[in-house]
Amino acid sequence: MSGVSPLGSYLPGDSPLHRLRPGAKLIGLFVFATAAVALRSVPSTVVALIIAVALGLVAGLRGRDLWRMLSRFLIVGALLFAFQAWQHGWERGVEVVGTLIALILAASALTATTAVEDTLDTITWALGPLRRFGVDPERVALAFSLVIRAIPSILGIAHETRAAARARGLERSPRARLVPFVLRTVSHAQLTGEALAARGIGDE
């Protein structure tokens, strides 16, 4: 599979995860994340990673797909591990970074087996009882949708900015990479807001 999203592109299939209802998968992901964070230790982190990799394989993701998703996290993960190891020891670094990787893989398994529309419909339905308290489920689902769709765009901007800096021989300059990235990301957000406003969303 090419062009894998950082959250895992939807892969049609008939695996046990595909057949599971979206609501059950969302609850399962919440429980998994809660347990992984609450029980954080080196052994429990290893177990969480094994479970997450197994979920990804059941969902239809292959080794190269998992690597593409995790490779986007390598730099941040390495810096985070170094900081945690320096402050609290290598065990804490393994716990923190390993837990984050496990959560990324588990979330990828969910999105690989659940269409975005089904996930948003489930969120809208689940928040329905909160209408009496002023919550607008459709707006919350729209926010989720915008975030999901924005992540690949922002990663694309980061890649283009890095390539442009490298072409100018400035790949080692944080300013040459960070300033254009921030400006283009803000511009992308403004264009998205203008598009929503043009459709009358957010005027109420």
Low-pLDDT segments, ≥5 res: 1-6
Q: How big is the Rg? A: 19 Å
Q: What is the count of structural domains?
A: 2
Secondary-structure class: mainly alpha
Helices, by number, come to 9
Beta-strand portion reads under 5%
Q: Indicate the percent of residues in helices.
A: over 70%
Count every beta strand, where a strand is a DSSP E run of 2 or more residues. Answer: 0
Q: How far apart, in Å, are the first and last alpha carbons?
A: 42 Å
Sheet of most strands: none
* N to C succession of SSEs: HHHHHHHHH
Average pLDDT for all residues: 79
Give me the secondary-structure topology:
Layout (H helix, E strand, L loop, with lengths): L15 H4 L2 H17 L3 H18 L3 H9 L2 H15 L1 H24 L2 H11 L10 H31 L6 H25 L6
Helix pairs in contact: 2-6, 3-6, 5-6, 7-8, 8-9
How would you describe what is shown here?
- The protein has 204 residues and is mainly alpha-helical.
- The chain has 2 domains: 1-114, no CATH class; 115-204, no CATH class.
- 75% of the residues lie in helices and 0% in strands.
- Helix 2 (22-38) runs antiparallel to helix 6 (90-113) and helix 7 runs antiparallel to helix 8 (137-167).
- The longest helix has 31 residues, at 137-167.
- The N and C termini lie far apart (42 Å).
Entry summary:
With 204 residues, this protein is mainly α. The chain is built from nine helices and no strands. The radius of gyration is 19 Å and the shape is globular.
List keywords for this structure.
single chain, about 200 residues, mainly alpha, 2 domains, 9 helices
